[in-house]
Amino acid sequence: MDKSLYIGMSGAKQNMLSQQAHANNLANVSTTGFKRDFAQARSMPVFGEHHPTRAYAMAERPGTDLSAGALQDTGRKLDIAVEGDGWLAVQNQQGEEVFTRSGSMQIDVNGMVRLSSGEMVMGNGGPVALPPFDNVEIGADGTISIVPVGGPPDQLVEVDRLKLVNPPPEVLEKGEDGFIRRKADEALDGPEPPDGNMKVASGFLESSNVNAVEEMISNLQLSRQYEMQVKVMTTANENSEASARLLQNL
């Protein structure tokens, strides 16, 4: 009797974990540059000092869908979307260089260019800092040019260039903070080298690549599976009680 009870219990638990993955995807359907997580289930034997006569279900996130989302026209000069493959390099709160497709940028009181979430945007020689300006333009190659305060409107001065990188997809993973980075065993000795062939679209943002309908259907399927697993546990318990009553009457 314990076999079916154990299988039902482990299956129900893993169904809940899978629902969390799909619910997180659904919650970020409007998040700029978000990449959805895959979720799958597989059987896993129980190991220990006994014969492997038990198996349970295990939910896991085998990877992240790195495909691009649709471009949304914002018309804002500090919004950029990476065209094709590749990433925008930023520096997180811990000083680590990480990658993102979210290009919603702003300038703080010190002239530092940051993402809307606060991370500093990287340039050729480190975080991008802009002097006072009357106008700013971002070229297709990521070059940042400004019109200095009081300068002629048609006289643009190149200040820096966004650091755009394009490491192989197979060496990348998504961290718990939502940013993309190299896997620990694929880390480089120094910073990721920039890719001069990459292009950006100024005045656009990349939307999430989450398909809301697909995620909702997956959650409904997992909910039905959870109910089935609970029913298995209930049936196993009823069978156990019935067996106990039979043994008492012998």
Structure description:
The protein is α+β, with helices and mostly antiparallel strands and 250 residues long. The protein folds into 2 domains: 2-66 and 209-249; 71-206, no CATH class. It has 2 helices and 18 strands. Helix 1 (2-27) packs antiparallel against helix 2 (212-249).
Distance between the termini: 19 Å
Count of all domains:
2
Portion of residues in beta strands equals 25-35%
Low-confidence stretches are none
Rough outline: elongated
Structural class: alpha+beta
Total DSSP E strands:
18
Quick check: average pLDDT? 88
> Which series of helices and strands comes N to C?
HEEEEEEEEEEEEEEEEEEH
Sheet with most strands: 5 strands, antiparallel
Number of helical regions: 2
What is the share of helical residues? 25-40%
Radius of gyration: 26 Å
Give a summary of the structure in a few sentences:
By secondary structure, the chain is of the alpha+beta class. The protein has helices spanning 2-27, 212-249; strands at 40-45, 55-60, 71-73, 80-83, 87-91, 97-100, 105-107, 113-115, 120-123, 126-127, 133-138, 143-148, 157-161, 164-165, 172-174, 180-182, 199-202, 204-206.
Which helices and strands occur, and which strands form pairs?
Elements: H1 2-27, E1 40-45, E2 55-60, E3 71-73, E4 80-83, E5 87-91, E6 97-100, E7 105-107, E8 113-115, E9 120-123, E10 126-127, E11 133-138, E12 143-148, E13 157-161, E14 164-165, E15 172-174, E16 180-182, E17 199-202, E18 204-206, H2 212-249
Antiparallel strand pairs: 1-2, 3-18, 4-17, 5-6, 5-9, 5-14, 7-8, 9-10, 11-12, 12-13, 15-16
